[in-house]
Amino acid sequence: MRSNSRLPLVAIVGAGRVGSTLGRILHQTGWRVGPIVTRSMQTARAARRSIGSGQPQVGMSEAVLAADLILIATPDRAIAQTAEALARIASSEAWRGKIVLHTSGALGSDVLKPLALRGAEIGSVHPLQTFSGHTVPSLAGCTCGIEGSPVALRMARRISHELGCVPVVLPSRRKAAYHVAAALAAGHVLAVMEAAVRILVKAGFPRQRAIRALLPLTRQTLANYERFGPRAAWTGPLSRGDFSVIERHLEALRHFPREYREAYDALSKLGLSVLANGGGSKKRPLEQTLARIK
Length: 294
Prior knowledge:
By secondary structure, the protein is α/β, with parallel strands linked by helices.
């Protein structure tokens, strides 16, 4: 860890999974950690232990203004309210030139407008990685979506490099699209995997055996996707146009909640759209098969 008192001092507002992880990595690279602001002293102290430095604090105070950077890592729904609360703690003179970044992937820096009106430089920095809270994920090589005012953008880029990420500047209006891509690649893939595990369990597999059976399949599919591209990696009955097998799948899904069948239908149509140029000769047979097996 570098020892340099001139490295930035960061205040972290909302030190849950993301805030604690970023604080810990920044601390390990030599950054100074100041106030760690949460709703209770218990969570603030827990965050301090996780980060390895900082001053636990409950609620907003002018202490955060001692920091070079204020990092808002609250849930998305609380960011606007947090910005308003921060704007009230001091005058415009105290805020002028301060840098405030939030960590939301879906929201632009405009959500921090109350602080911009006070004279702060506003932006966002979002590592494109999943944070479980159980371990500190590696951010090396991950993309980091950044945007904001020129001054805030320079800080966001600097943080990205400190985290080991590759910064990518996003237009604020494109943040939601950027984030939905992440949601599809992470949360929705997890839902599909868990549904597949439950199907195997109902077929007679012990749960852990089902997980061990499916993970190598999924990993290899993703490895093929990375190496050969989407079309070459695409396998299964739909890729082959084997609609009799798809009929058997649909029959089997009768014994599961309707969401399973609806997801299978939607994913089949999406597969044709993105993997087969809109479906081509397979589109109509698929629609007929889906309509026939209700």
